[in-house]
């Protein structure tokens, strides 16, 4: 089945630093979504990407849909303590699997004030 | 507007029991999906329902079943609970299916513990 490889697994950074995380797949995805999840809560949608090569921003967050349709990255600029959490990439596959989201295993972000 | 609401928020059950989890989607959304998230992993797809019909099913045993009601709310049922069913169960709401299914909004989840 489709799998997403998300890296890094965890990051520990200082407040104010920029962060980059990425997601790769062995198969093509039609959409890429990035979510943030706080402990005990459901994932919150941050950015949605629909076209290969698309670059989208949401405040300090920027994400891109890779041109091969098999990867995506998320950048966070000037990190702040409330950026702490687990970030997940997710995507809708092509063809018969387009009804479900496939998730990566997540990147745990810790920001040191 | 209310987001996706799930009930209960926490639940403790004994092995072999049955459980029913409930979800109300965002107003106007017709598609509901269920995901299971075990500790340290990303959510895993269980079911999608649209207009009361099952549109997709993940790799879960037949002990897992679901349904969608005319008001688009949904229930997830799990029979003969196993310890390994302990997880956060997430409901996701989408406007529709296919091209309208791309943005899924999640509820806060139901934390199920099987003892």
Task: Please summarize what this structure is.
Chain A is built from no helices and eleven strands.
What does this structure look like?
The complex is a heterodimer of chains A (113) and B (115). Chain A has strands at residues 4-7, 10-14, 19-25, 29-37, 44-49, 55-58, 61-65, 71-76, 85-93, 101-103, 107-112. Chain A is mainly beta and 113 residues long. In chain A, the strands form two sheets. In chain A, strands 2, 4, 5, 9, 10 and 11 form a six-stranded mixed sheet that branches. Chain A has a five-stranded antiparallel sheet with strand order 1-3-8-7-6, with no helix packed on it. Chain B has 115 residues and is mainly β. Chain B is built from no helices and eleven strands. In chain B, strands 2, 4, 5, 6, 9, 10 and 11 form a seven-stranded mixed sheet that branches. In chain B, strand 7 (64-68) and strand 8 form a beta hairpin. Chain B is globular. Chain B starts with a strand and ends with a strand. Chains A and B meet through strand 4, strand 5, strand 9 and strand 10 of A and strand 5 and strand 10 of B.
């Amino acid at each position: 089945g489709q799998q997403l490889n998300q890296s890094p697994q965890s990051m520990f950074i200082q407040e104010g630093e920029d962060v980059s995380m990425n997601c790769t797949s062995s198969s093509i995805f039609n959409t890429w979504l990035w979510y943030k999840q706080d402990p005990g809560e459901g994932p919150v949608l941050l950015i949605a990407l629909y076209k290969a090569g698309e670059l989208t921003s949401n405040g300090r967050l920027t994400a891109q849909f890779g041109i091969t349709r098999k990867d995506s990255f998320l950048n966070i600029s000037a990190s702040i303590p409330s950026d702490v959490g687990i970030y997940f990439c997710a995507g809708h596959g092509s063809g018969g699997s387009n009804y479900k989201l496939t998730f990566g295993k997540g990147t745990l972000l810790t920001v040191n004030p | 507007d209310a987001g996706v609401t799930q009930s209960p928020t926490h639940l403790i059950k004994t092995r072999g029991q049955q459980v029913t989890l409930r979800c109300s989607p965002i107003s106007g959304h017709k598609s509901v999906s269920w995901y299971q998230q075990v500790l340290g992993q990303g959510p895993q797809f269980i079911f999608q329902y649209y207009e009361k019909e099952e549109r997709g099913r993940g790799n879960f045993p037949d002990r897992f079943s679901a349904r969608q009601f005319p008001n688009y709310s949904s229930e997830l049922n799990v029979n003969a609970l196993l310890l390994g069913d302990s997880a956060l169960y997430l409901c996701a709401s989408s406007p529709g299916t296919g091209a309208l299914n791309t943005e899924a909004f999640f509820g806060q989840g139901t934390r199920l513990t099987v003892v």
